[in-house]
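Technical note accompanying the year-one report. For the benefit of new consortium partners, we illustrate the data format agreed upon in the data management plan: each record pairs a sequence with a structure-token string. No post-processing was applied to the example shown here.
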Amino acid sequence: MDNQQKQDKHLWRIAKARAAFRVHGTVYLFINGFLWLIWFLTSPDTNGTPWPAWPMATWGLLLAFNYYFAFEVDPFRDTLREYEKLQQEKELRGL
């Protein structure tokens, strides 16, 4: 497998992670909106912390991790960079 094929597979993984994040974000918004609507329509007592805040916060934290790994972290970028650096050193030494 040549370097171009490795990069294409890597880009495909990144694209899939980002598309999955968009789907998860949309589901998060709709489901949590529905939970807040249920709470608003059925809760006679509005004192204290509303119960939809807990699943929203927990799910939101997980969604933040999903975002981080889909858009900010690229574990293969560092590996590829290190590989290219070693290739350059090899060429400089004439090996």
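Partners are asked to follow this layout when depositing records. The chain has three helices and no strands.
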